[in-house]
Amino acid sequence: MLAQPYQIYVERTDPASNMARYYVMEITETLFGEACLTRKWGRIGARGQAKVHLFDREEEAVHLFLDLAKQKRARGYRPRQTALIAGS
């Protein structure tokens, strides 16, 4: 059983260079009790790529999750900005 949910969705956009990328990570548990870190990335609106990492211990998955999140923030990825709708 995972101690807590680990999920992140970040984007990196730059209209001047036609850049619109996303990066998603999530830690889940497999049917066999292993920790599973799933990463997905690509151009916003496209299917993109995916990679799955399996770990015997949740702590190992969390360590990689945090390292990758730090790297993405350093490269300019930020949480998606939501627009406010008038009248809400």
Structural class: alpha+beta
CA-CA gap between termini: 39 Å
The name of the CATH architecture is Single Sheet
Mean pLDDT: 91
Uncertain stretches: none
Remind me, CATH topology?
q64v53_bacfr protein fold
Query: What top-tier CATH class fits best?
Result: Mainly Beta
Helix content: 10-25%
Superfamily (CATH H level) name = WGR domain
Indicate the overall shape.
elongated
Helix-strand topology string: EEEEHE
- Compute the number of helices: 1
The share of residues in extended strands comes to 35-45%
Secondary structure tally: strands: 5
Strand order in the sheet with the most strands: 4-3-2-1-5
Number of structurally distinct domains? 1
> Using only CA atoms, what is the Rg?
15 Å
How would you briefly describe this protein structure?
The protein has 88 residues and is an alpha+beta fold.
